[in-house]
Every structure is written in C-alpha cells, then in structure tokens.
C-alpha cells in the first residue's frame, strides 16, 4: 500500500515541473535546472515517486552517436492527479479569507 | 581545477555511485551516470555527479540506521561500536571544521576539499572495512610496505624548506604520514608481529628524516600505550626505535611557518568567533570518542581503542603545541582520510572483536598474525 504523507516543498516543486510538461518526457539534469533542486535531492525524489506509481520512466535512444541512452520521466495519471490536487489546495489556501490583524486590534 | 580534470572527476564519481546505491537501484545509477555525461559544462557535470553521490550517501545512511525498523534504539546500539561511532564523530568533526572554515572566510575550495576527502574516506572505509577477507592477510608485509612508502616520501616527496612530507596528487598535496600512520599503529596494536615491528621502525626512521616531531611523537605515544597494555618483544622493539626517532626529530630544526586554516587553529579560531573556536575544539575532541567506547564482552579490553585514542590525541596535542595540521577540523584532507582509514582497524562489532582476540592469541604465541577484516587493508 502506498504510504500517504505530506509532500515536502521540494517534492511539490518537482511535481509542478513534471506536471507542467504534461505527457512530455523530461530528463534529470533538465529537471534539476528547472526546479533548482540538487541532483542529490532530485534522484531520491524521482526514485520515490516511481516506487509510489506517480512517475513513469523510460530509456530513450541516444540523440547523437557515441552518447549513452538517456533516462526520461513523466508523471503517470495518478501523479498528474496528485500534482493537480496539490495545486488546487495551494490555490484555495491563497484565496481563503484571512483575519485582518489591523482591524482585529483597532 | 581544469575543465578536463573536472570532467574526469565527474566520471570517477559516477563510477562510485554503484557502490553507494543498492543493487535494486542499479538502473537509477545507470540513469545518473548517463545524465552526468549529458551535462555539457564540465564543472556543472562534476557538481551534478557529486550531488548524486551525496544523495546516495544520505539514502545509505538512512537505510543503515533505520532499515531494520528499530529506529533510534538501533542507532544507539550501532553507535556503541567504536567504528560506527567513529564514522559519526568523523562526520560531525568534518562538518564542524567546515563551519569554522566558512566562518573564518577560508577560500571556497577548502570546505569542498574537506567534504570530498570525507566522502572518499567513507568509500575507502566501506571498501576496506566491509569486504570479507577470505584469505588470511599477514599484517607484517603490509606494515613494512606502508613504512617504506613513508620512507620514499621522506627521500623523494614534495618538500618545503628542506622538509619532505608530502606528495602531489593532481592539484592537492597529501601528507602521507597523516593518511597512513594512524592506521598502521592501530593495525600493529591488533597484531604486533616481528615483521610489523620492522615496518613500524622504518616508519619511525622516515618521520625522523621528515623532521616531523608531531607524527614521530604520535607514533611513540601510540606504541608506548600499546607496550604498557601489552608488553611484547615486537612492540617494545618498535617503541625503542620510535623513541629514538622522536628524539632525533626534536633535535632537528623544524621551522615551517603556520599555514592559515591548517595550523594553530585550536587557538586562532577563537579570534574568529567564540562559536567558531568551540566548533574546532569540539570537533577535535570528538575524534577521541571511539577510544572510550567499548563493550563489556570485548575479548581484548581496549588495546586497539586505546592506541587509536593515543594516536589522535598525539595529533591534537601536536597541533596545539606547534605548527602542525589540526586533524579533521582544519583544512586538509589527509587527516580526514587518515582518521577514516584508522577506523577500519577498529572492530565493527562483537564478531570482529572475537576475531581480534584470536589474532592477539596467535601473535602472542609467536605465529604469523592474520589481521581481521578491515585491519588487514589499512
């Protein structure tokens, strides 16, 4: 059973970057640059997301001769739903009315 | 560092990844290595590779400490073993040293070098301490070979003001005695054979030739503790040569000036900030912790641990008294590597402690000694 727990800010940032690409494949270094995550944080997150079924990965043929094949990633349907859920929750937090401190103490 | 060197280092770090990540993640290791090759900028590739390595270490540490589902209790038990405690202390001391270097405004590469030395030492310790040595490896020839390395450094190493203690590895100078001597002394304590005694004697002569009062004194102190704990002809002979070498080193001039961020920092760090001074002092003291940890069922009470403590106490006291490197907390990877390598000669658990007891019994009976795993490869 997949363990459910609050996602870290780094995981949310990675999910957002992957979700922005929709069904397009992304690469590790490209994701690191897009999210500002260090590779030592990025790969453990990718490994965890894949283990949880949120991420799918595939090997892509080398773009140029002499280059190794490249590992590429994109969110699964479950991953996309998770990313959308987080985005919606974040949006509703931003839009919820907050008490105005100045008024409360005036 | 040149771009070419950075690219080569990135490739080397990439090759290390498979030793850090578990077999089940070998596909991910391949993915990381492939991605490292795709990064066009050489330095960025090195940063990317080091990041992957660091991520692997974090995962491995978490697995080791918590994978058995016993959490903190398991961690406490593991930390009671001198080698595990030593790794934790080395990590803390390196981190405190890096904090000092940053606070003191050291050049940016200094903390990087120390961190890289720690990672390298951990990899070496994993390779040496974790490998099960099936065949018996005699300690004597190994100690003799390491003593000869010290002698070769004294005769043909890089010199400063007539003193030859270093070799150049790429852009870095390495003080060979700091890397190998602590491990040699602890390995010798676990199996003091006649040939090992010769190896220690050669090392002592080399230190006298290097005008190195600090390491010569450290060697003499370690052997003195060993001889007091376990007086045997091999250790007595080595001690006599080491004392003579120390006397010679004391009689010879050693006028090397203090190097910023390396020497004298036990005192100067307090000028930076009281907290920086406290970090340096605490980091240095942490190095001694493995020597005071033991188990009630330890079959050979203390010998190797006491000698380990004496050796590192010797290094710290030397750094306080003269212009010698402050181990682990000061700038320089040699002591960090040396500390982690010397940990490989300490028992990791009760089973290897029993192996040590057998070794000691063999040595005492005058038969060739077989070093327990790890110690044989120091």
Describe this structure in words.
The complex is a heterodimer of chains A (106) and B (378). With 106 residues, chain A is α+β, with helices and mostly antiparallel strands. In chain A, 53% of the residues lie in helices and 13% in strands. Chain A contains five helices and three strands, in the order αβααββαα. Chain A has helices spanning 9-20, 28-35, 39-51, 77-95, 101-104, and strands at residues 26-27, 55-60, 70-75. Chain A has a three-stranded antiparallel sheet. Chain A starts with 8 loop residues before the first helix and ends with a helix. The longest helix of chain B has 25 residues, at 42-66. With 378 residues, chain B is mainly α. In chain B, a hairpin with a 2-residue loop joins β1 and β2 (163-169). The interface between A and B is medium-sized, with 19 and 23 residues.
Based on Cα principal axes, name the global outline of chain A. Answer: elongated
Could you name the ranges of chain A where pLDDT drops below 50 across 5 or more consecutive residues?
A: 98-106
C-alpha Rg of chain A (nearest Å):
18 Å
Largest interface (CB < 8 Å): A-B, 19 and 23 residues
Shape annotation of chain B: globular
Major sheet of chain B: order of its strands? 1-2-3
- Oligomerization status of the protein chains: heterodimer
Strand content of chain A: 5-15%
Distance between the termini of chain A: 52 Å
Poorly predicted regions of chain B are 130-137, 350-378
Order of helices and strands of chain A: HEHHEEHH
Give the helix proportion of chain A (percent range): 40-55%
How large is the count of helical segments of chain B?
17
Q: Structural class, from secondary structure content of chain B?
A: mainly alpha
- Count helical runs of chain A: 5
Features:
heterodimer, A: about 110 residues, alpha+beta, 5 helices, about 55% helix, disordered C terminus, B: about 375 residues, mainly alpha, three-stranded antiparallel beta sheet, 17 helices
């Amino acid at each position: 059973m997949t363990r459910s727990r609050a996602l870290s800010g780094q995981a949310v940032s990675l999910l957002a970057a992957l979700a922005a690409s929709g069904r397009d494949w992304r690469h590790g270094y490209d994701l690191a640059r897009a999210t500002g995550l260090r590779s030592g944080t990025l790969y453990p997150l990718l490994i965890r997301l894949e283990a949880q079924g949120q991420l799918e990965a595939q090997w892509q043929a080398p773009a140029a001769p002499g280059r190794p094949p490249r590992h590429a990633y994109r969110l699964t349907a479950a991953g996309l739903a998770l990313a959308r859920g987080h985005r919606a929750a974040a949006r509703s937090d931003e839009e919820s009315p907050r008490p105005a401190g100045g008024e409360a103490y005036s | 560092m040149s771009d070419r060197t950075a690219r080569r280092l990135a490739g080397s770090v990439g090759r290390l990844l498979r030793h850090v990540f578990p077999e089940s993640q070998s596909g991910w290791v391949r993915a990381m290595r492939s991605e490292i090759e795709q990064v066009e900028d050489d330095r960025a590739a090195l940063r990317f590779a080091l990041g992957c390595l660091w991520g692997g270490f974090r995962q491995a540490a978490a697995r080791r400490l918590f994978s058995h589902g016993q959490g903190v209790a398991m961690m406490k038990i593991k930390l009671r073993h001198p080698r595990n405690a030593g790794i934790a202390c080395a990590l803390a001391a390196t981190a405190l040293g890096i904090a000092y270097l940053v606070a003191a405004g050291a050049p940016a590469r200094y903390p990087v070098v120390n961190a890289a030395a720690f990672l390298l030492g951990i990899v070496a310790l994993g390779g040496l301490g974790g490998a099960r040595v099936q065949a018996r490896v005699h300690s004597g020839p190994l100690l003799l070979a390491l003593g000869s390395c010290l002698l070769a450094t004294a005769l043909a190493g890089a010199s400063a003001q007539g003193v030859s203690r270093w070799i150049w590895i790429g852009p870095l100078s390495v003080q060979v005695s700091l890397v190998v001597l602590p491990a040699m002394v602890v390995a010798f304590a676990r199996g003091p054979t006649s040939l090992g005694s010769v190896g220690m004697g050669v090392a002592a002569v080399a230190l006298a030739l290097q005008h190195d009062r600090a390491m010569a004194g450290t060697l003499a102190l370690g052997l003195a503790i060993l001889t007091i704990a376990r007086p045997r002809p091999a250790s007595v002979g080595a001690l006599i040569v080491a004392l003579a070498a120390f006397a010679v080193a004391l009689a010879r001039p050693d006028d090397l000036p203090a190097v910023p961020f390396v020497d004298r920092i036990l005192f100067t760090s307090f000028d930076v900030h009281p907290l920086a001074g406290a970090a340096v002092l605490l980091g240095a003291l942490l190095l001694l912790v493995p020597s005071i940890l033991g188990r009630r069922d330890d079959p050979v009470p203390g010998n190797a641990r006491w000698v380990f403590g004496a050796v590192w106490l010797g290094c710290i006291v030397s750094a306080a008294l003269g212009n010698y490197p402050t181990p682990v907390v000061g700038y320089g990877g040699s002591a960090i590597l040396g500390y982690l390598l010397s940990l490989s000669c300490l028992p990791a658990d009760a089973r290897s402690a029993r192996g040590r007891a057998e070794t000691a019994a063999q040595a005492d009976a005058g038969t060739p000694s077989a070093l327990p795993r790890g110690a044989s490869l120091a």
